[in-house]
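Sample A.
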Amino acid sequence: MAEQRDTDRAQLVDRLRLDRDRSSGRSAPASSRRRLLAAAAVLVAGGGLLWFFTGVKERPVVRTAVARAAAEVAGDTSVLDASGYVVARLEATVSSKITGKVVEVLIEEGMRVEAGAVLARLDDAEAKAQLSLAKAQLEAARTEVDVLRADLAQSERDYARQESLAREKVAAMQDMERARAARDTLRARLANAVQQIQVAEQSVDVAQVQLDNTVVRAPFSGVVVETAAMPGEMISPISAGGGFTRTGIGTIVDMNSLEIEVDVNESFIGRVTAGQPVEATLNAYPDWKIPGKVIAVIPTADRSKATIKVRVAILVKDPRIVPEMGVRVAFLGADREAIARGVWIPNEAVLSEGGSSAVLVYDNGTVRRRPVTLGESAQNDRQVLSGVAAGERVVVSPGEGIGDGSAVRLSEPG
């Protein structure tokens, strides 16, 4: 009985082993298919990623610039920038016409004076004495004329009497001739005395002018920017006496005559014309734009600096503008209304083909070609009147092989 149970157990174990083997044989093909599908998916995904990164890396790199609205940058658009200084066309160091000692100075720096105002007075004692002498000489000449007229009247009567007696043969002819000679002499002396009156009157005028010259007056209205002489010092219209003699009382500037002088390199002077609008910026006020226009281009060059001087009018009067201030001048290429239209892009972004112009606009990894209408030129920029909107990116200096529909990548983020 025990042997029979062992035999049955062995047979049961054999059957169970065979069933597992058969079961295992049936499931093997399904497991292999799942593993193959998973491997294929991994390969496809890896290939896609490899293609993506390889394709992006192989795209040509481009440099772009943002189109700027012309209305916002009209003030920055210029055909030429240059530096200069504010100067006064009407400026004078006022001096006296004569040499003398200063007794009174009536001006200070910053004071505004009107034309003809008294700035200073010189010692006038000698001038007053000369005037008194000239007046006395004039009175003496007038008195002399009165005396001579009286003598001449008497001489005329004596001559008439001698002439009557001579006709009647009562007096000798010699007496009549002497009376006539005396009369003629007095006539000549009277004429000379009258001339002396005129000379004396002129002497009085000269002495009066000399006295007036002791008062120094403003030749025009303006602001005193400097005083040079003090009471007690000698002043002269010429440098007489070395450093001990002043040549001026003070300096006056007419602030209404302020303008800008700019030295423009002669290589760019062709961009500047009379009447051209400009925009000036003082170094002291960098955010203040001052409108102006070109007065004239001086027709001579500075050989040492290779520059030509340009005069610029300041169209806005303001007390903040003072002489000798440094200023930056932007010469505008057209009127402001024309400049303020459309957008501005770099010159390198414009493509010229067969007489027409176009640009390449960047859009999400690709570029599109667009025809454009061009406007003004200003240094490194070009005005685009139509074809590009403000804020769009245009390709700058596109390389060979980059055209409409090309896939590209940016050389900088954004």
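Sample B.
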Amino acid sequence: MTDAEKLEVLRRSPLFEMLSGAELQALAELSRVRRFGAGDVVFREGDAGDALFVLAQGEVDVVVRTGPAEERTLASFGPPEAFGEMSLIDREDRSATVRAKTECVALQLGAENFTAFRKRSRDGFTLFLVNVARVLSSRLREVNRKLAGRP
């Protein structure tokens, strides 16, 4: 995947709205392309969280354990959704498992990438954090609607 293709993936992601072209380019250069086959685990519930992923292709399921051999699917994501951002923010272990539903291509940005980005662009990093808050708020509202039995 070229840097131009990475740039386009980031440009479409809600986590990177309002960032400048130069800021997106910096993140594209810092990102790593990861490929997953259908059924592959991207990360497991309880793992240390040190990166977020932005889907370029494919679909993933977010699942949690509900019993010794049982799990529940909380969400499914496709491009240009991002996942894994919570552990970057709160430094807690992963709260769910993410598994590739189909073959996937994702951009991986680790904690060290965001440290480097913060040093390059404090304003861009601030916008990224605002976008993370917006995405998490939207997801929480969706969970609230589901728990209340509303569509």
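B remarks: The domain at 3-112+120-147 is CATH 2.60.120.10 (Jelly Rolls). The radius of gyration is 15 Å.
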